């Protein structure tokens, strides 16, 4: 029989990976429950997972591609923007989902014990599933414009999405336990992420940025997955520069810092609510 | 850890930061620092006044298979203690050691999602309690059966009645095999039949060697279910004793009475109630004046089971009421009514002189050990109903000791409140098992 000691002793900063693996069924249930409850009682159900990005894409194509005629290196605007919008939105949704994962489940956390890290993990997985569906929509749209999936896409699309998940998780985990007490962080984070979209080549081509600023522009960690998406889908060349390692380092640091902060602080969230 | 102990609590204390307690207004930065302090445990100004101790030095242990009650008024620290035991939060001082998986029902329907069906929620709740889906599947039919939800199991729980919701939640928590079951005020919900079923289930759980912690404000439930109870008051443990003593202590604390219990047997057997007022029962027609109780030897507050009991009531009607009635209510120490006697139960006596003394005699007091209280009621009898004119609750208490009314092996405290002498006879078996009797006995046994 397992004996458990509950005391105020110093906690280890290492996340309880083994315990989370043992409770993977619970993680799966969290994911399933969230997805199911999102589309339940909707006449169109899961179809919305496809309709929503399509509708958004059409609106953006009209405004930016047709009315404002933004420079896209001669690629069809719809595919060009959609290819960047999916990784970017995957990043913001993952970040916000992880950041809010403790606060949204406070009712559960304050009543029953389970490894809290399951909550952000489940949040990441469900956003990943959503993004995979959107990639499917993207492939259909780009095929319509004559761009068919290549070996590059098959090979790199999933690792790229996972990398974005981890980047979002790092940022989200850093604030997840603090957001419970300071809810101000949530709208502030949301605004910052919106600003981040304009700093990344989402609605426009990266080539519009002046050459002398390119290094600084490229140390934005999200620059790389977005450009990877366009490279996979549209054959737009991807030039690896010295900014790449500079951009990757903070992702790794944030990820580790987030994990440690979360592991050390999650227990206290119940007491500060 | 000794092998038969399921829970050990050693000097558990829990404090919460309450920075608003300080008088001077804090700046935003000051507040930020306070919260950072709480989060990081980093040193800053450590002012004891900033903290509130929800629990202080709680030490006890629970054996496997024991049903232990935790009682205390709101804010006494019960919930904090349960949160610590279930691992939701950690103590500031001391430690708790638990042995085995804990199934907690800190709140009815923890983890239930309104949009999900009963079935989906059973699996979710089970997973939250730490069970594998395969284990839940094995128990699933039994859970549905026990809850009585039937075909509604595939309906979203938001469409359930609150009773159905609670029944399903309780069934999940009690049937999914956890070694320690924590139940917080769950017996207060559900109808009578389900409550009875739940109590049986809890007893069965304990008989299986699993441990139950029961928190309830119902002293009736605590007395019925637990052999032992802990009383918490303002975060401190007042007693850890047998249920009876715990219930008495709790009731005394609730009524804000002195620590030292008064031996009611030493109180006068006659009480003046002409000026006794009660908020809930105003007395515009002050009729009842005094009460006296006596046994066969004269006025006393101390009785033995089977004693003669005489209750005398002095009264003065402001104006004559005819027909009228007098009533005596006898309640136990937790306010449960034990019996009620109207004057018209005695050959329809409904006529009394406007002023005088009325006497109610009980030839053989049928009560077991305990402290009881007498309420007195007076009113008018009309064609269609009876209407109260003057009512005085809790006029006086009296104590009963069982003695040897039922012989050398008396009844125990959880064996009811009524002493009934019975006659038992036996007949040799070959006289009743005639051919016609056999099928009837078989049917009876099957039930």
Care to describe what's here?
- The complex is a heterodimer of chains A (273) and B (447).
- Chain A is an all-alpha fold and 273 residues long.
- In chain A, 70% of the residues lie in helices and 2% in strands.
- Chain A has helices spanning 17-22, 24-39, 48-67, 77-99, 101-104, 106-109, 118-144, 151-179, 185-199, 214-218, 223-234, 243-272; one strand at 3-7.
- Chain A is globular and about 65 Å long.
- The two termini of chain A are 33 Å apart.
- With 447 residues, chain B is of the alpha/beta class.
- Among the domains of chain B are: 1-100 and 214-261, P-loop containing nucleotide triphosphate hydrolases (Rossmann fold, 3-Layer(aba) Sandwich); 265-401, Coagulation Factor XIII, Chain A, domain 1 (Distorted Sandwich), CATH 2.70.50.
- In chain B, the strands form 4 sheets. Chain B has a 6-stranded mixed beta sheet with strand order 5-6-7-3-8-9, sandwiched between helices. In chain B, strands 10, 11, 12, 14 and 17 form a 5-stranded antiparallel beta sheet that branches.
- The chains are: A mainly alpha (273), B alpha/beta (447).
- The interface between A and B is large, with 35 and 45 residues.
- Strand 1 (3-7) of chain A pairs antiparallel with strand 4 (93-99) of chain B, so a sheet runs across the interface.
Summarize the structure.
Chain A has 273 residues and is mainly α. In chain A, 70% of the residues lie in helices and 2% in strands. Chain A has one domain (27-266).
Question: Which features would summarize this protein structure in a list?
Answer:
heterodimer, A: 273 residues, mainly alpha, 12 helices, 70% helix, globular, B: 447 residues, alpha/beta, Rossmann fold, Coagulation Factor XIII, Chain A, domain 1, six-stranded mixed beta sheet, five-stranded antiparallel beta sheet, 24% helix
């Amino acid at each position: 029989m397992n004996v458990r000691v509950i005391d105020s002793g110093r906690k280890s900063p290492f996340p309880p990976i083994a315990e989370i693996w043992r409770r993977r069924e619970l993680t799966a249930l969290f994911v399933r429950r969230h997805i199911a409850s999102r589309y339940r009682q909707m006449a169109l159900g899961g179809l919305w997972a496809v309709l929503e990005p399509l509708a958004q894409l059409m609106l953006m194509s009209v405004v930016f591609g047709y009315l404002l005629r933004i420079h896209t290196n001669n690629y069809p605007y719809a595919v060009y923007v959609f290819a960047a919008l999916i990784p970017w939105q995957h990043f913001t949704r993952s970040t916000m989902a992880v950041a809010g994962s403790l606060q949204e489940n406070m009712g559960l956390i304050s009543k029953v014990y389970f490894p809290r890290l399951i909550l952000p993990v489940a949040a990441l997985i469900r956003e990943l599933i959503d993004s995979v569906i959107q990639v499917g929509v993207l492939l259909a749209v780009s095929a319509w414009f004559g761009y068919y999936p290549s070996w590059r896409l098959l090979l790199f699309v999933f690792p790229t999405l996972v990398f974005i998940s981890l980047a979002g998780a790092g940022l989200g985990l850093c604030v997840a336990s603090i957001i419970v007490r300071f809810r101000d962080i949530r709208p502030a984070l949301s605004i910052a992420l919106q600003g981040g979209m304009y700093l990344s080549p989402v609605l426009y081509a990266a080539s519009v940025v002046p050459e002398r600023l390119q290094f600084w522009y490229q140390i934005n960690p999200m620059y790389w997955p977005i450009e990877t998406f366009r490279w996979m889908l549209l054959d737009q060349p991807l030039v690896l520069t010295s900014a790449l390692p500079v951009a990757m380092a903070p992702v790794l640091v944030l990820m580790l810092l987030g994990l440690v902060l979360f592991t050390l602080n999650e227990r206290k969230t119940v007491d500060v609510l | 850890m000794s092998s038969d102990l399921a829970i050990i609590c050693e000097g558990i204390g829990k404090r919460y930061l309450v920075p608003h307690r300080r008088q001077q207004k804090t700046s935003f930065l000051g507040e930020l620092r306070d919260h950072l302090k709480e989060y990081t445990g980093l040193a800053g100004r450590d002012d004891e006044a900033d903290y509130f101790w929800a629990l202080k030095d709680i030490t006890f242990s629970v054996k496997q298979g024991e049903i232990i009650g935790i009682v205390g008024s709101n804010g006494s620290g019960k919930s904090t203690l349960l949160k610590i035991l279930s691992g939701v939060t950690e103590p500031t001082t001391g430690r708790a050691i638990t042995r085995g998986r804990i199934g907690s029902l800190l709140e009815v329907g923890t983890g239930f999602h309104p949009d999900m069906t009963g079935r989906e929620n059973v699996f979710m709740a089970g997973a939250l309690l730490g069970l594998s889906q395969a284990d839940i599947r094995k128990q699933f039919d039994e859970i549905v059966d026990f809850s009585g939800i039937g075909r509604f199991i595939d309906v979203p729980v938001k469409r359930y009645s609150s009773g159905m919701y609670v029944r399903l939640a309780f069934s999940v928590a009690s049937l999914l095999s956890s070694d320690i079951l924590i139940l917080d005020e769950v017996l207060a919900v559900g109808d009578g039949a389900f409550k009875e079923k739940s109590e049986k289930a809890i007893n069965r759980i304990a008989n299986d060697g699993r441990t139950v912690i029961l928190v309830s404000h119902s002293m009736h439930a605590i007395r019925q279910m637990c052999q032992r109870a802990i009383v918490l008051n303002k975060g401190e443990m007042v007693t850890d004793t047998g249920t009876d003593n715990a219930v008495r202590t709790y009731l005394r604390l609730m009524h804000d009475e002195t620590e030292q219990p008064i031996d009611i047997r030493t109180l006068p057997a006659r009480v003046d109630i002409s000026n006794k007022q009660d908020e809930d029962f105003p007395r515009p027609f002050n009729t009842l004046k005094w009460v006296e109780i006596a046994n066969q030897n004269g006025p006393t507050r101390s009785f033995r089971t089977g004693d003669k009991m005489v209750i005398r009531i002095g009264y003065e009607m402001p104006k004559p009421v005819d027909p009228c009635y007098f009533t005596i209510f006898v309640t136990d120490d937790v306010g449960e009514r034990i019996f009620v006697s109207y004057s018209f139960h005695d050959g329809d006596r409904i006529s009394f002189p406007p002023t005088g003394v009325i006497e109610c005699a009980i030839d053989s007091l049928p009560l077991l050990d305990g402290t009881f209280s007498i309420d007195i009621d007076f009113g008018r009898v009309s064609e269609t109903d009876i209407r109260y004119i003057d009512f005085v609750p809790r006029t006086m208490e009296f104590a009963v000791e069982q003695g040897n009314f039922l012989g050398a092996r008396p009844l125990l405290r959880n064996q009811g409140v009524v002493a009934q002498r019975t006659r038992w006879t036996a007949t040799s078996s070959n006289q009743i098992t005639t051919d016609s009797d056999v099928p009837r006995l078989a049917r009876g046994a099957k039930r």
